[in-house]
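Bug #77: duplicate submission created two jobs. Keeping one. Sequence:
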Amino acid sequence: MEPKQQTLAAFCAATASDAPTPGGGGVAAAVAALAAALSAMVARLTIGKKGYQEQEAAMQLLAEKADALRIQLLDDIQRDGDSFDAFMAALALPKENEAQKTARRDAMQTALKEAARVPLAIAERAAQVMPLAEQAVRDGNRNLVTDGLISAVLARAACVSALYNVKINLASIQDQELTDSLWQQVRSLQQEVTVAEARILALQPDLI
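Kept job's structure:
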């Protein structure tokens, strides 16, 4: 059964088990999906409420964007596990002669690149939740402002968490041009969500 089809209890139990997946990347994707869900909830509980008529169209669009991210992030849980499994399969390839060793090294490098790209995509999607959370806090139902704030905090945490998986894999990738590019993206994303979180929390200074 794919992780997204499991109950929350089953997913947590699988994470707590001695199986290597779901691991940190999958958990980061799940947290980001919940962050997106919270922003969508704020939007939907703003639509149709007295005093928020002018925000209805924007809130509908917010909910749709958040839903799309949530669906992608839930699928990312499986993608993250698949990328880890591919690396483990490459690691298990025979290495009894030079040809096999070369094939194994090439397969491992291919798998490592994918194992870096997948959590980077998770981090990028988590970062995309941040402006939705900001809009939810700024323009959404005031009774749900804390849900918007939690969405932002979770999205930042998920992004930074996924980036750890990118960083650990970059250390083993031999393609310097690729690693330099990915490192630049990692640093940019980490800075982006850190600044965004501070900005969003500052919208409610009494709660900081």
